[in-house]
């Protein structure tokens, strides 16, 4: 990385619990201490960074896994109602809910940049204002999304779904309308807490809510006979439980007393500027979330697609589950980089990027090795069919490559969020994913008759290209310049 840092900066701030004594000196000071031998300096800095990284990443991974599991549990209960209900819940989740959650999470990541850098710069009072601004913008965004939910049946019919399936999916989706507004509040709250490295309370709340969710789903579906609408309403209710519990924590906890000063009229200032920043974030994240959904849609266009769709569905389920680890490191990378930039610590920001990428990559390689070792039996977790198992086994090498990429790409996206590069990454995603990956995949899959392997190969190629570009941008980054950019950004957004 192109960096020349001679100044010493203030130490980074503490997290949920005070760090061990050896962490009391800042990472920037350790990296700048030329009196120590280089190897000892790097080893000590790595120890400091790991002790800051894992308390952030581990709870974040658990939160994303648990929140993802709530949707899975809801669909599992729907499956007990019948095959049509299961298909309807899956369609409502993949076709409608995923669109809304991706958009809202993407827009919410704008506050991640601002809160993380403001916290590092000791501008604590601005975190609460940024959170409120994000909530206002996301709540307004939820209104047109609600209209999409209301008219989802004709939309599904328009894209060729059958009348019974579209009707059942619409019933399921109607119960998810309150969830949209829960997203609008939850994602800013989540980023507000993560920026301060307060992550454990969200984990405890999510675990408790998951237990409640299973219990209420059982009551709604089996005892009260509320069917699809009951299962989705329970999911919406539980998301609101998470929102309320987290907000109560913010108001009552002493850890947030510097960053939450109550509701403020300043939250309504500069909303249009926030909309523009949020839009870039939304485009960046949505293009990533939707990318491999396109793989499933294109696979459905193959001749006799049933077996291909079944095997791809199993692989995408595994990839989606393990992706939550990458997403957890994405959040940790964003917090670490934004905090250090806000604190004026360019060396520490650059070093954090290196360490979090190395750790996430090593874990991703281990995941890929395990998947390849279990390639002949892994599908039996989802289905008993031997034909599907053989098809999944054939696709596992592609899944393994995807898992390795998922260990790098989300982390680089987290670095981009921490630095405020959302607009740049959005353009890169459009070009690499949809200008290269999808067309090449279609050519390989249909023109060269490689089927789902060809489609997946093309899309892997798009991800590789995007990852290489992000690596190059990150490697060439002038971190002193990024510190100055963060300072200007905070000065612009303050009040």
TrEMBL record:
Protein name per its UniProtKB record: Protein DETOXIFICATION
Q: Which gene encodes it?
A: 25486140
How is the protein disposed in the membrane? Multi-pass membrane protein
Task: Kindly give the CDD domains that the UniProt entry links to this protein.
Answer: MATE_eukaryotic
Which InterPro entries does this entry report, sorted A to Z? MATE_euk (IPR045069), MATE_fam (IPR002528)
Subcellular location, record wording: Membrane
Q: Which organism is it from?
A: Medicago truncatula (Barrel medic)
Its transmembrane ranges are 45-66, 136-159, 171-189, 201-222, 228-251, 271-291, 311-333, 354-378, 398-417, 424-448, 454-475
The entry lists its GO molecular-function terms as: antiporter activity; transmembrane transporter activity; xenobiotic transmembrane transporter activity
Extract one GO cellular component term from the record.
membrane
User: Family, per the entry?
Assistant: Belongs to the multi antimicrobial extrusion (MATE) (TC 2.A.66.1) family.
Q: Which GO terms describe its biological process?
A: xenobiotic detoxification by transmembrane export across the plasma membrane
Q: What Pfam families does this protein's entry cite?
A: MatE (PF01554)
Asked whether the keyword Membrane is assigned, the reply is yes
Where composition is biased (Basic and acidic residues), the residues are 1-19
- Chain spans, region Disordered: 1-21
Q: Which UniProt keywords apply?
A: Membrane, Transmembrane, Transmembrane helix
